[in-house]
Amino acid sequence: MNPVNKAGRNWPGYAGLAVGFILIGILLSNMDLAGAFRRINAIGFASLLILLPFFGLHLLETVAWGRLFPKGVGRVDLFRLFKIQVVAETVSMTLPAGVAVGEPLRPWLCRRFMGVPLPDGFASIAVRKLMLGAAQGIYTIMGAFAGFSILQAASSKVLGFGGLGFVMFGAGAFVALSFLGMLLMMLNGNAAVTLHRVMVRVPFRKVREWLLDREEGFAETDRKLHGVKSDGLVGLLPVMALYIAAWMMLSVESYLILHLLGIKLAFSQVLAFDTAMLMLRAIFFFIPSGLGVQELGYLAFFGALGVSAADLAAFLLLRRAKEVVWYAIGYIVMFLEGIRLDDAQQAQGEGA
Predict the structure, then answer these.
(1) Whole-angstrom Cα distance, residue 254 to residue 319?
(2) Is 25 contained in some domain?
(3) The overall pTM is greater than 0.70
(4) Number of domain units in the chain
């Protein structure tokens, strides 16, 4: 691949990373860091508990993903799939435009570690992304319902106008319905073949020839997608519950950190502002791990709740420290298993 072209495609990610670092720098310069480190030091070894919810998130996502492979794949090794989940998530969340690398890496690693054919891997990834998006929408609705009053009360300080509770309800419903609609179309129709029929109408001869040569591949994708729901859409409901539970681990993590810091907030309050932060992070997807943006959001919410500057800084530092530990684990697994970032390009090329 031409390095210049590759860099050109990724410039939004690098720009987002730069913006994130600038925001972090501005925030840190205005935070009570000395007070924050005193608060963290007071927790001691109990701070290691903060690593557990993210482990639960990865575990729940792994179990859910394992149930989305076409039936012909057979039994999925959950331990190996867990390693793939950790590596792919690490790449997606730490690199500029990392999702474009981390997601294609998943089917390639499934083939390498578990012998899953690439078409089956791609089918599982397609359904996984849609179910994960729908689950995020449902999770957002749950947060808006549980913490509607706190969202409304904090709305003026967070948005500058009232109605944040209604905004979160609307955003959650829109996301959930959009992804569920796409999921139904994908699993009940001939989505790939239909897409192929549309694409071959392009007025470029070489592109049409390339697409026609791969017509059978599009039909095979539809067959694999149908295999995911061979026991009916009702069979996907437990998977959706697992993904919602995985999203819930983020609120559990925030609640645990706040509890260790001695900040007494109801779980419904934590759920409300965590779902709002998740939606904010999704909007600024081009910034790795929502760097800076997420901190600004918490600053607005905690300010509305009367949380001290030292507690806010301690909370943010502990959350980021947890991410550093888990992403370090992801890169260690990559090193030990000999996984390279350009392996994703191989998967994309072979899956074409």
Answers:
(1) 8
(2) no
(3) yes
(4) 1
